[in-house]
C-alpha cells in the first residue's frame, strides 16, 4: 500500500534537511582543515632556515658516542608539537564567505598576518563562526595530529590535499544538489532541493 502524500512530503523534507546539514558540516570541517594546514605552513616558512635542533638518543653508546643529529628546527617534531598546541586559536582570524543561498561556504582570513588589508567583501564575521571553526580545528587535531605532523616533518608536497583528503577524508565528500523541485501534498506545496547525492572517495 502506498504511503499518504503527506507522509511522503515529510520524508522528503527530512532527507533534504539531513543533506543540507551534512553539507554544512562538511564545509565547516573542510574549511577548518585547510585553515589548519595554511596556518602551520606559514609558521614553518617563517622560521629561520639556519635554526637547527638536536634530535636522536642522548644515551651513551658502548663506544662512548651518542646517536645525535641536527635537523632544521622549522619542520622538526618538537616545533610541530609546539605549533599544534595553539594553532586552533588562529581560527579567530577567519570569517565565513558565501556567495548566496545554497552556495558552498568557505572560510578566509579577516586579518593579514603582516598588517596588510584584506578584501572582506561577502565575508561574515561572527563569534559563532569562530567558535564552530575552532571546535572543528580542535577535533581534527585531536584525531589526526600524528598524521599532519608526519607530513610536515618529512617535507611532503601538497600537504593540504594529502592531509585533508587522503588522511582525513574531509575533502572527499561531495554533496550534489541539482535544481529545485516542487514537492506537492494535498494542502500545500514545498519548494525543496531535489534528491541529494553523497559521493565518497574510496582512495
TrEMBL record:
One of its GO terms (cellular component) is endoplasmic reticulum. Residues 1-22 form the signal peptide. Keywords: Signal. It comes from the Eukaryota. The keyword Metal-binding does not apply. Residues 29-168 form the DUF3456 domain. InterPro entries: CNPY (IPR042415), DUF3456 (IPR021852). Belongs to the canopy family. PANTHER family: MIR-INTERACTING SAPOSIN-LIKE PROTEIN, PROTEIN CANOPY HOMOLOG 2. This is Canopy FGF signaling regulator 2. It comes from Eptatretus burgeri (Inshore hagfish).
Amino acid at each position: 500500500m502506498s504511503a499518504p502524500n503527506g507522509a511522503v512530503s515529510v520524508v522528503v523534507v527530512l532527507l533534504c534537511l539531513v543533506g543540507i546539514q551534512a553539507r554544512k558540516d562538511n564545509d565547516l570541517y573542510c574549511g577548518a582543515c585547510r585553515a589548519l594546514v595554511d596556518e602551520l605552513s606559514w609558521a614553518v616558512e617563517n622560521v629561520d632556515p639556519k635554526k637547527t635542533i638536536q634530535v636522536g638518543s642522548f644515551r651513551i653508546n658502548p663506544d662512548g658516542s651518542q646517536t645525535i643529529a641536527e635537523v632544521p628546527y622549522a619542520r622538526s617534531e618538537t616545533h610541530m608539537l609546539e605549533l599544534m598546541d595553539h594553532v586552533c586559536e588562529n581560527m579567530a582570524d577567519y570569517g565565513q564567505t558565501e556567495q548566496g543561498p545554497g552556495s558552498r561556504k568557505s572560510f578566509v582570513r579577516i586579518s593579514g598576518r603582516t598588517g596588510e588589508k584584506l578584501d572582506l567583501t561577502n565575508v561574515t564575521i561572527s563569534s559563532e563562526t569562530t567558535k564552530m571553526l575552532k571546535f572543528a580545528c580542535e577535533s581534527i587535531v585531536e584525531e589526526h595530529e600524528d598524521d599532519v605532523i608526519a607530513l610536515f616533518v618529512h617535507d611532503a608536497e601538497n600537504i593540504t590535499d594529502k592531509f585533508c583528503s587522503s588522511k582525513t577524508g574531509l575533502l572527499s565528500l561531495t554533496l550534489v544538489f541539482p535544481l529545485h523541485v516542487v514537492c506537492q501534498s494535498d494542502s500545500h506545496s514545498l519548494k525543496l532541493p531535489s534528491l541529494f547525492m553523497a559521493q565518497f572517495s574510496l582512495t
